[in-house]
Amino acid sequence: MFSLTEDIIFVAMGIAAILSVIFVVLAIITKDLVKATIFSAVQSTLYAFLLYLLMSPDIVLVYVAVSVGLLPLITLVLVKKVGRYEKV
Amino acid sequence: MDIKTIMFVATIVSLYINIGVCIYGVLSKPNLVKKFIALTILQDSINTFMILDGYRLWRAGLIQPPVLLNWSPTEEDLKQFMMRAVDPLPQALVLTAIVIGLAANVFLASVILHLYRHFGTVDVDIIGVLKRVAISEELS
């Protein structure tokens, strides 16, 4: 019974980490900076889930507010001022 | 190898790949906003890696939280607590690092905005050429 729960925790951890790799690569290769910001926010959400599974809920409380809320907001304001598309 | 080991190794390898991809983004992308986004992801990856470093597999009694429930703990309680609890030192370090990183990131964003207002672009190659032109005009 306990072994099954442990397996589920580890499988969820691995899936969150592997999905975050996909979103990091998408955020780096895309030319649209708004899309890059959104991919970075999705990656931050996955990291928050990973941190929760790693038994640090105190970090999650700060991390969600900072890295899912404030940093994409600052980046979006910056993108609005400097222009949306990266030149090839 | 059981599924737990495979998934834990997959998590570690994924974080290493994220750190590598973000270093590539910081070094090779000319756009300063893209560099900024890659730098924030790099910070998050390193912070998560440090938390992963302090993680300990919580074997028996997954229902019980990793805190000390007894107000006047006996030796057996303390031994159980030491076996269950994770290392709090990386967590305190990362909690401070996230908050300081937010301040550093806001400063970087304002620097990028001032560079854009001065040069009219956020491409570091063009900014380098413009600076070289300005310096040679001043010297001549």
Topology:
The complex is a heterodimer of chains A (88) and B (140).
Chain A: H1 2-29, H2 33-53, H3 57-82
Helix pairs in contact in A: 1-2, 2-3
Chain B: H1 3-28, H2 32-53, H3 75-84, H4 88-119, H5 124-139
Helix pairs in contact in B: 1-2, 2-4
Protein described:
- Chain A is mainly α and 88 residues long.
- Chain A has 3 helices and no strands.
- In chain A, α1 packs antiparallel against α2 and α2 packs antiparallel against α3 (57-82).
- By secondary structure, chain B is mainly α.
- The mean pLDDT of chain B is 88.
- At the A-B interface, α1, α2 and α3 of A face α1, α2 and α4 of B.
Quaternary state of this entry equals: heterodimer
What would you call the shape of chain B?
A: elongated
Low-confidence stretches of chain A: none
Q: Please state the structural category of chain A.
A: mainly alpha
Distance between the termini of chain B: 70 Å
Largest chain interface and its two residue counts?
A: A-B, 46 and 56 residues
> How many beta-strand elements of chain B?
0
Helix content of chain A: over 70%
Q: Unreliable stretches of chain B, pLDDT < 50, 5 or more residues?
A: none
Q: Compute the gyration radius of chain B: what is it?
A: 23 Å
Reading the helices and strands of chain B in chain order gives HHHHH
The helix/strand order of chain A is: HHH
Sheet with the most strands, sense and barrel status of chain A: none
In one word, what is the shape of chain A? elongated
The end-to-end distance of chain A, rounded to whole angstroms, is 54 Å
